[in-house]
Amino acid sequence: MNLIVAVDKNWAIGKENKLLVSIPQDMKFFRETTIGKVVVMGRKTLESFPGGQPLKQRTNIVLTTDKNYSVKDAIVVHTIDELLEELKKYNDEDIYVIGGESIYRQMLPHCTLAHVTKINHAYEADTYFPNLDEKDEWVVTGVSDEQTYFNLEYEFVRYERMQ
């Protein structure tokens, strides 16, 4: 299973249910990587999308504790066990965890590959991703050239969990 995330230099991922910054190349990478795949997210992540609608051309799976929650064109599950059972229907390599913070934390132990866009800037934030650089089992297996968007520097980093 994979995950995909953009983090700042403090591993922050968002503030008030919004991304910290929108970088066109990062959005393009996200879109190209997840199109035709299964995306796993929490309810608040789904609601942060335009119109609160599921992502097109992907299988959207939403984890929420709200038993009455439903959304058109998405599969809704209510527990991690229910989510893991649902995910057995799909090829592990086609599954991408896309947020938010609590979903990343709960699903990280099940992931073996992480696509992390590391932005060289510290933002004011209220949600964070676990720092993979501090976790012995995660190793960097690929780093893009440094990219720039206006005055922001960032790079695409690939982490793999060592068994």
What keywords describe this structure?
4 helices, single chain, Dihydrofolate Reductase, subunit A, 163 residues
CATH architecture: 3-Layer(aba) Sandwich
Number of continuous helical runs:
4
Q: Poorly predicted ranges (pLDDT <50, ≥5 residues)?
A: none
Whole-number total of structural domains: 1
CATH fold label: Dihydrofolate Reductase, subunit A
Gyration radius over CA: 15 Å
Structural class: alpha/beta
Q: What is the highest CATH level, the class?
A: Alpha Beta
The outline comes out as globular
CATH superfamily: Dihydrofolate Reductase, subunit A
Largest sheet: 9 strands, mixed
- Straight-line N-to-C gap: 14 Å
The helical percent reads 10-25%
The whole-number mean of residue pLDDT values reads 97
Strand segment count? 12
Task: Tell me briefly what this model is.
This protein has 163 residues and is α/β, with parallel strands linked by helices. 20% of the residues lie in helices and 36% in strands.
Please describe what this structure looks like.
- The strands form 2 sheets. Strands 1, 4, 5, 6, 7, 8, 10, 11 and 12 form a 9-stranded mixed β-sheet that branches. A 3-stranded antiparallel β-sheet has the order 3-2-9, with no helix packed on it.
- It contains 4 helices and 12 strands.
- It is an alpha/beta fold and 163 residues long.
- It has one domain: Dihydrofolate Reductase, subunit A (3-Layer(aba) Sandwich).
- The chain is globular.
- The longest helix has 11 residues, at 24-34.
- A hairpin with a 2-residue loop joins strand 11 (147-149) and strand 12.
